[in-house]
Amino acid sequence: FRVGAEELLHAMRGQAFVVHLLDETGKTAKLAYEVGLPENAVPLLTDVVLDEQSNLAHVVRTATPRVFRLDEFSPEYQEIFRAIPLHTTATIPLASRGKVVGVMNM
Exposed, middle or buried by CB within 10 Å (0-12, 13-18, 19+), for 98? Predict the structure, then answer.
């Protein structure tokens, strides 16, 4: 992911790049790669439960990319994003053979 992440961040003038892959159950997104996150953000993003309120879950369920504003996240995520600083994030489903296997955020 490193080379692709660096190229995308440069092209899009992004601040952070994160890839989550779904576990076997499809109910948890596991952090597979990150660059640009504050150290205190990594533990919060290591295992993200895909519940009904989760922005990641929405993208996984719909298999549709989405741009989220800062105010669409829970307060704990807003704190992380302000530290980057980040005001919006693009969340893009990663699919293999027609099935969503993860998500990319930048």
Answer: exposed
